[in-house]
Amino acid sequence: MDDLQKSIAFRNLIREEIGKFLISKSFTKTYDNENENQENSHNWVFRLAYKEIKLIEIYNRDWRDYIEYFHVAVDGKEMFDVNIKDYETLGLALENFKFKIKELI
Predict the structure, then answer these.
(1) Which residues contact 22 (CB under 8 A, 6 or more apart)?
(2) pLDDT confidence bin for 16, thresholds 50/70/90
């Protein structure tokens, strides 16, 4: 799997697994770039937002470069990022990502 394929697969894992987890903790999905007009290239950048008391945003900074970095911000303050290249499998990257998310809520 090349870097783009890994990034797309990890985005899908985040949407499914992290989204499901946050919703189970009373968060509501307030934004998903996938639901926006894809004719506008600004909407190509991966971004999810979930709101409860805190606003949690999960995103890539760009759709072309450094797509292996997934950033997390809480109430506008960047808290951590995960570089999926640092993990042997996407499953391990997701496990670490979820652990860090749990620490934030």
Answers:
(1) 29, 50, 52, 56, 101, 105
(2) very high
What's the Cα-to-Cα distance from 75 to each of 7, 43, 55, rounded to whole Å?
24, 21, 5
Indicate the domain borders of the chain.
3-104
Tokens of 78: 């960047």
Categorise residue 9: left if φ over 0, alpha if ψ from -120 to 50, beta otherwise. alpha
Residue type, 3: D
Model confidence pLDDT, tens digit, residues 59-91: 998 767 778 999 999 999 999 999 999 999 999
Task: Please report, to the nearest 10 degrees, the dihedral formed by the alpha carbons of residues 94, 30, 81, 13 taken in order.
Answer: 20
In this structure, what is the dihedral angle of CA atoms 89, 93, 94, 96, given to the nearest 10 degrees?
140
pLDDT in tens, 24-43: 999 999 999 988 766 655 55
Q: Which of 50, 45, 22, 23 is nearest to 33 (CA)?
A: 45
